[in-house]
Amino acid sequence: MAIAKAERLMNLALCLLGTRRPLSKRELRDSIEAYVEASRPGQGTAGSDDSFNRMFERDKDDLRELGLVIETVESLDGEVGYLARRDSNRLPPITLDAEEAAALGLAAKVWQQARLAGAASGALQKLRAAGLPEDVDPYEAHSALEPRIPVHEAAFEPLMLACRDRRPVVFDYRKANAAQPEVRHVEPWALECWRGHWYLAGFDSDRGAERVFRLSRITGKVRSRGARFTAPVPDVVTVRETVASWAGETADRSARIRLRTGAGYPLRAKAAAVRELGDGWDELEIPYGHGLDAWLVEFGPDVVVLEPAELRADVVDRLRAVAKG
Questions:
Q1: DSSP-assigned beta bridge partners for residue 213
Q2: Is pLDDT above 90 for 258?
Q3: pTM for this one?
Q4: CB count, 10 Å around CB of 287?
Q5: Which of 95, 104, 166, 293 is deepest in the core (most CB within 10 A)?
C-alpha cells in the first residue's frame, strides 16, 4: 500500500510539473492509472466519483505538505485546474567555495566511525550532483589533524533519533556509585561529546528536573514512549557546560590528591600545582566541583584523595559501590 501511494503521488507531481496549463480533475483522472482504477464502475458512478475525489484531495494535500507549490486556477468557463510551476518549485543553485566545501568534508570525516558515515557521504554526493564545483574535493585533507568522534554506545542512535523526533524514552541507567541500574524516564533534548564521552541532556520526568546522562552508563535497550514532551525544550541546551561544572571545570575550590607517577594525564592538565613525593607518587592541587568524585573514581588505584574530607568520603563510597558490583 505504501509503495502504491508513493507511486501515485509521484505520478501526480510529474503531471502537475510537466504541464504548461492548468489540468482539470477530469484530465488528471484520465492520466494517472491509479485514478483510473479508482474510477471504474463497481458500486455505481457516484460511488466511483466520490472515491476518486477523496483520493485526489488527500494526494494534493500530501504533496503540499511535502513542499510542492500547487496552484489552483479557475478558467473563464468556471472550470478549476491545477498546476505546479517549475519556477515556483525549483531550489536556488548551490554554490560552495573551497573553504565551505572543506568544512563539509571535514564534518563528514568526523562521522566515519559512526553509523552516520553513510548519510554523511550520501549528502556530499548529492551536493556534487547539485552543482558542487568539480575542482573542489570535500574529502581532500586540508590539515594535518583529522578529527574523529568515536560512537561505540548502542544507545547513541536511538537517542539521536529521539532527540530529533521529540520522543520521550525509557532506559536503565547505572550511576557511578550505584550497584544496580535504575529505570529513568527522560525527555531527550540534545547529545554532545565531551572528553571522549557522549552525554545526553534532557528532562527527567521522575525527578522533575534537567539531568545529564553519560551514554556508557546506559544498560540495555533504549525504549520509546508513546507520549509527548511535558517540559519546554530550552533554546540552548548546555550539555558541555553542565558536565564541565560537575567535573570541576568551573569550580572555585581546590582539592589535594596523590597521583601515581606517569598516570592521570587529564588530571595533570587541570592541576594548579604539582609536587613530586617520591616512591612513584606526586601530589596535585586540582579544581574541586560537583561530580569530581565520579571523575576521580575512573582512575582507580592511581588516585588517592588527601583533602577535603567530604571528597575523600564520596570517592570511597563510589569505590565500595563498584566493588559490590
A1: 200
A2: yes
A3: 0.47
A4: 17
A5: 293
